[in-house]
Design goal:
273 residues; 2 domains; 8-stranded mixed β-sheet; two-stranded antiparallel sheet; 10 helices; 10 strands; Formyl_transf_N_sf
C-alpha cells in the first residue's frame, strides 16, 4: 500500500476539503493508498477551525501528530528576520523537532495541504514532498491573487495549476504534474472586452477581486485544484511519474518537465463550470 504523509496548518475549511478529497478517493478505491500520519503545526485549542480539522482526522483513525509553531517560536524567542532571507536557526530547529516526532513513519510521499511554513533543507532531504501552485509551470509565481492579476496584465492565453516538488526555495521545485485551460475561449471574450483599455491597477482600485474576469479565472482554477492533487498522487503511486533524487521522470526513467494531467481532469470538472 502506497503510504502518504500529510502536513497542514489547518487554518480553515479548505484544509478539511483537501484531506476529504483524498480520503474519499481512497475509500472509493480510486487511489490505492493510505495516509500514515497527519502533522499539524498547531495544537488543540489554538483555533476552532484547526480543532474541527483534528476531529476529521480522528474520525478516520489516522495518527495525528501536533507541534505548535507559534508556541515554539515564543518559547525560543524566535524572530523571522535573518540576513539574506534564509530561515533562522530556530526555524531549522523546529523542523528537526518535527522530524523527531515523525520518526516512526515511513511515507513514500508527503503532501503539503494548507501548510503555512517553508520547509527547511533537512525536511526536504528526508521526504519527497509535493505542494500545489495555482499556475502553469510557465505561468506567474506568487499567491493565487498575484497570479491572476499578472495573467490579466499579460492578457494571457491560458493558465492552470501545478504540483511541484518542495525545496527550501519557495515555489521553485521541479514540476511533478500540472493541468491547464484556456482563458481566451468564447465564454471569456466578453469578460476581456469589459476591461479593454483599462489598466490592471485601476481595476484593482475600483473593483478589486469582484471583477468578473478575476472571479471567473479564480473559479476555473479552483475547481481543478482538488482533482489535480488526487490525480497527481494517483499517478505517482502508479509510477506513471516518479520522483528520484530530486528529478521527475516518467515510467521509462526519462526526465520530464512535469506530467500533463489536463485530459484526465477536464472530464472530472464537467458540470462544475
Amino acid at each position: 500500500m502506497f503510504e502518504l504523509g500529510w502536513f497542514s496548518t489547518a487554518r480553515g475549511k479548505g484544509s478539511r476539503n483537501l484531506l476529504t478529497a483524498v480520503l474519499d478517493s481512497i475509500q472509493k478505491g480510486e487511489l490505492k493508498a493510505k495516509i500514515s500520519f497527519v502533522f499539524c503545526s498547531r495544537e488543540p485549542g489554538e483555533s476552532a477551525e484547526t480543532d474541527a480539522f483534528f476531529e476529521l482526522v480522528k474520525s478516520h483513525n489516522i495518527p495525528l501528530v501536533t507541534f505548535s509553531y507559534q508556541k515554539y517560536k515564543a518559547k525560543v524567542n524566535g524572530s523571522d528576520e535573518t540576513p539574506g532571507g534564509s530561515l533562522p536557526r530556530w526555524r531549522l530547529d523546529y523542523d528537526s523537532e518535527v522530524l523527531k516526532r515523525l520518526k516512526p513513519y515511513k511515507p513514500q510521499l508527503c503532501v503539503l495541504a494548507g501548510y503555512m511554513l517553508i520547509m527547511g533543507p533537512e525536511m526536504c532531504s528526508r521526504y519527497n514532498i509535493i505542494n500545489l501552485h495555482p499556475a502553469t509551470p510557465w505561468g506567474p509565481k506568487g499567491t493565487w491573487k498575484e497570479v491572476i492579476w499578472e495573467l490579466m496584465q499579460q492578457k494571457a492565453s491560458e493558465t492552470g495549476a501545478m504540483i511541484h516538488l518542495v525545496t527550501p526555495e519557495l515555489d521553485r521545485g521541479p514540476v511533478v504534474s500540472y493541468c491547464r485551460f484556456s482563458i481566451q475561449t468564447d465564454s471569456f471574450k466578453p469578460l476581456w472586452d469589459d476591461i479593454a483599455g483599462r489598466a490592471v491597477n485601476e481595476i484593482k482600485a475600483t473593483e478589486g477581486e469582484n471583477n468578473a474576469l478575476f472571479r471567473t479565472i479564480r473559479h476555473q482554477g479552483t475547481i481543478r485544484e482538488l482533482p489535480l492533487i488526487v490525480r497527481s498522487i494517483k499517478a505517482i503511486s502508479e509510477e506513471r511519474v516518479n520522483i528520484r533524487q530530486g528529478k521527475i521522470t516518467d515510467n521509462c526513467g526519462q526526465t520530464i518537465p512535469g506530467y500533463d494531467l489536463s485530459t484526465e481532469i477536464d472530464p472530472i470538472i464537467q458540470g462544475r463550470e
